[in-house]
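Standup notes
- DV: blocked on the single-chain target, sequence here:
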Amino acid sequence: MINKQRQQGVALFVALILLLAITLLGVSSLKSGIFHERMSVNSQADTLTFMATESSINSIISFAWQIGQNDVDESFFAESILGAGQRNCIAKDAVLDGDCTVDNTFDRRASGILIAQADTEYDGESPAENSDATFAYHKFTTIGNAYFVADLDLPFAYSNSQGWKKLGVGRGFSFTASELDQ
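- DV (later): unblocked, structure below
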């Protein structure tokens, strides 16, 4: 004959084992969800820095194409043409001279977290094809950099380089070094 008390103890033991298995499954699912969330945040941060790098380069090239229009003159590239190199901060609504600060962030969030800047160097000129000596291609290299502000623990940063050229007056732009000093 089978003892009923012994059977009830086995049922309790089986119920506890099932409860433990369900708990472990829940904890495992929770850890997996947190891991996937971190992966998606990191992927988004990585994409944001890449896009900010490309945008910083495109902002500088856009200024080159606007020379003579929209109050953009060729003195914008003066430092670069004179050989000093040029750094610009690509802020929310403007392209600023010099380094970026935490007040001049690229993104439009209330407390911006992404910094984008561009370094432009003048690489000389080459004669324009099918043109007299009046016109030349002025060659530049722009290096875009983007990173998150220092107080965030996001180790993502991008740096990308793009060479480009602008057709203009030969032997420099239409200004001279003495005109730039004024």
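- Follow-up: The mean pLDDT is 82.
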